[in-house]
Amino acid sequence: MNIIETDYWCLMLPDEWSAEQSDDVVLITDQDGIGELAVTTLVRASGAGERITAADIAKEESPEISAWHAADYGGFTGVTGQLEENGSAITEWYLNYGDALLYITYACDEEDDGLDAAAVDEILSTLVRGDALTI
User: Fold this and answer.
1) DSSP E strands, 44-87
2) 62: closest CA among 89, 36, 92, 37?
3) Mean pLDDT over residues 110-135, rounded?
4) Which domains does the chain have, with CATH numbers?
5) Residue 75 and residue 130: Cα distance in Å, rounded?
6) pTM for this structure?
7) 3-state SS, residue 34
8) pLDDT grade, residue 9 (50/70/90)?
9) pLDDT at residue 134 is higher than 70
């Protein structure tokens, strides 16, 4: 198992998966190259006004997704939904914990939809908050 760690969250990856980390996005792929899991971390400045839920942000930022479902991984809670666009199957998650919002996407070709679903769920089930997050 490989461990991917940021200040705000941590994930464990199966050996056949790898990650590249830039300033605010972590791109995770498996050796088969079927799809790509991307994790973007947004942190709200303390005292930045009223809190908005992950569900509210999801509905505003991704109006093309008509059905949202509750999601909970390692204390991060929010919603998940799916869409098809330009030949790709895309699953999105909006999860928050304290002042952090994780925007997570998994994208693959439509014909490969579902092939990595169990592996992606397994990866996300290892999600835990990082040391920079306190409530």
Assistant:
1) 69-73, 76-85
2) 92
3) 90
4) 2-129 (3.40.1000.10)
5) 11
6) 0.91
7) coil
8) very high
9) no
Q: CB neighbours (10 Å) of residue 39?
A: 25
Q: Which two structure tokens, joined as six digits, stand for 49?
A: 């006004």
- Write down the mean pLDDT value for the chain: 91
Q: Residue 58 in contact with residue 79, Cβ under 8 Å?
A: yes
**CA atoms in the 13 A half-sphere facing the CB of 74:** 18
As given in the structure block, the two tokens for residue 126 are 């290892």
Phi, psi of 123, rounded to the nearest 5 degrees: -60, -50
Which is it for strands 76-85 and 88-97: parallel, antiparallel or unpaired?
antiparallel
Task: Retrieve residue 11's tokens.
Answer: 């994930």
Q: For tokens 């996300």, name the residue.
A: 124
What is the token pair recorded at 54?
Answer: 């992950």
